[in-house]
Automatic annotation (TrEMBL):
Top-rank taxon: Bacteria
Domain PilZ: 100-208
Signal sequence bounds: none
Record-annotated Type III secretion system flagellar brake protein YcgR PilZN domain positions: 4-91
Record has Nucleotide-binding as a keyword: yes
An example molecular function term from Gene Ontology annotations: cyclic-di-GMP binding
Swiss-Prot/TrEMBL keywords: Bacterial flagellum, c-di-GMP, Cell projection, Cilium, Flagellum, Nucleotide-binding
Source species: Alkalicoccus daliensis
Protein name: C-di-GMP-binding flagellar brake protein YcgR, contains PilZNR and PilZ domains
Gene3D superfamilies found in the cross-reference section: Electron Transport, Fmn-binding Protein, Chain A (2.30.110.10), predicted glycosyltransferase like domains (2.40.10.220)
Amino acid sequence: MLVKLGSTINLELEDAEKGKHRLRSKILDYHNSKFYIDYPISEESDRQKFFLEGTEFQVSFIGKDEAVYSFKTEVTGRVKKNIPMLVLRDPGKENYSRIQRREYVRIDTSIDLALYSEEEKFQPFTTITNDISGGGMSATLPKNHKLHKNDVITAWLSLPYRSGEIQYLSVKAQVIRIRLEREWPRASFKFRNVDEGVREKIIRFTFEKQHEESEKGLH
């Protein structure tokens, strides 16, 4: 199985009246070519949704090989073990579509950001990102910054999701390079030793931004 138990998956439901509806869930179990997932949570309302047998979804997830996969499936039932679960059919690996490796999913976006020195080389300061991916980011720096290549910092990110939810995440990052752009310094960072749960939240954010841009006809 390409996906790990406990992994977050994204579901997309086509509604004839309201258009596409996006949800998220977790894979709790796998047996006899069936995924057992937590009841999906709507990205719009942040509430759990209930679906009848036969409801069709487009599912995407991050595989063990760190690639993104997508497939079509439908609800085949509901079960209740320790918690209620929805059952989805696994169409088989031959019906999965490989989208792209997650380290290349980089989105141009401005996110509120606070940077702290690991060794107290500078006073903490706030800024915004220029872009972000599951593997790193770039950010604008003040002109009097004291960052240098290879410095390791702690970054606090504020990720606003479509549902209105805001996630505040802390990650360690290493300065890869610093350059001038339009008279302002810009630093590129690579995330280091990131908890996979935190990385998945960042990737979820980038996926949402990709969908928004697609809807606006930017991609």
